[in-house]
Amino acid sequence: MERKTANEFPQELLNLFDTYVHGRIDRREFLEGAQKFAVGGTTAMALWESLRPNYAWAQQVPKDDKRIKTEVVTVESPKGNANIKGYLVQPARKKRRQLPGVLVIHENRGLNPYIEDVARRLGTEGYLAFAPDGLTSVGGYPGDDEKGGALFRTVDRQKMGEDFIAAVKWLKARPDCTGKIGAVGFCFGGGIVNMLAVKLGSELSAGVPFYGSQPPAEDAAKIKAPLLLQYAGLDTRINAGLPAFEEALKANHVTYEAFLYEGANHGFHNDTTPRYDEASAKLAWKRTLEFFGKYLTGTKKES
Length: 303
Known about the structure:
Layout: H1 11-21, H2 27-34, H3 44-51, E1 68-77, E2 82-91, E3 99-105, H4 113-124, E4 128-132, H5 145-152, H6 157-173, E5 177-186, H7 188-200, E6 206-210, E7 227-232, H8 236-239, H9 242-251, E8 256-261, H10 278-297
Parallel strand pairs: 3-4, 3-5, 5-6, 6-7, 7-8
Antiparallel strand pairs: 1-2, 2-4
Helix pairs in contact: 1-2, 2-3
């Protein structure tokens, strides 16, 4: 399928698709709403297909890249869903005996190929990257985002949160980890990064939520980790909670930076959909690496 960009679609249609992706309408309702944009021989179904992820595009770092080694591991989660599986990536040749760790947290579809690729990118940068699958308790990511979204809605959200906390603690306790842990997440995963910052306090060394929902303002006092907040300029749904969050972070003297990428849609870092904004994604990733370099390794890592 030919890659399309966001500017080839009406913004109203992109907003409608965002509503569908986040479970506020089902596919039938999306198709009904998309019908008015189905012109010139294009059908509503064709529009749906063109907006869905194409995971053939999601491989900036090949699975067999010689710079890294990967494996699937299972982490015990006694307060969550008993255990959680995930994708562990580490440099093939470690320059140091211990490395900082980064938890990579998926969107509301489970551990799909895009998130696995993000973990591989971090592995090439010298991190122990672990991408857990929040769908473990219902069989794991099913290989299809729509099915993954349906499964996601069946998982106990509180237990899933405990699964991610267990994943952080497991990564932090590994003998090949320095004990410094960062977390990066996208959409749902961005909200989980904020939750981890609240729940883990100083156990988390740095957090980078991409277009993540914000915790209640009163919880900001519990945050100890520096945060790098990455938001899309056109994402009014998520951005509505940003001013109150920033005010609370400032009031509680939390170290943070916030960036708004003008003209970008929610999901702009995900390079498998038309919402991908290459310039914004590359800049946001450069800032992410620099942020982790500063707070996890004590260096300024350039992309």
